[in-house]
């Protein structure tokens, strides 16, 4: 095993450990803002995995769309909603038990898929890098294409989804409780 492969494996295991730890923290924490920050860490580490796989374009998309868009949108939605509107309810014992068994089932299914798939180690050389560059150009052309097989419409739908999410956060933040008065009805003096 060469030094390069050893360093690569060490980075992989460090990133994997951090990703698993942050994912557990995102699920276990009771504070939703901290959960969003932990999720952001997991998504950043998955972008690091893309960089390690020599897929820099996917790493950039991961950071721009998920970290820069979705997580920031979640944080804004949390910050804009009033804390009195978000009441913590304890799940019933049945929901906890069902969630546990679904999680264990998903874990077992994931292990089964990993052990029954043909995973091979690909060595990085100049031929792979040239193929990756050609693939990135093809992906870029597909993303901007409005013809059959293009993804320009999907990006437009995604932008509408993000806009609706922001508007929903604003509506939730401006929602007035039944006991409160509207801003127009308040009097000064």
Would you mind describing this structure in some detail?
The longest helix is centred in the N-terminal third of the chain and has 26 residues. The N and C termini lie far apart (79 Å). 4% of the residues are buried. It is built from 6 helices and no strands. Helix 2 packs antiparallel against helix 3. The C terminus is likely disordered. The radius of gyration is 22 Å and the shape is globular. It is mainly α. It has one domain: NADH-ubiquinone/plastoquinone oxidoreductase chain 6, subunit NuoJ (Four Helix Bundle (Hemerythrin (Met), subunit A), Up-down Bundle), CATH 1.20.120.1200.
Number of domains: 1
The percent of residues in helical segments reads: over 70%
Q: Overall pLDDT, averaged? A: 78
Give the C-level CATH assignment: Mainly Alpha
Considering the chains and any ligands shown, give keywords for the structure.
189 residues, mainly alpha, Four Helix Bundle (Hemerythrin (Met), subunit A), 6 helices, globular, disordered C terminus
Please describe the topology of this protein.
Layout: H1 3-28, H2 32-52, H3 56-80, H4 93-115, H5 126-144, H6 152-174
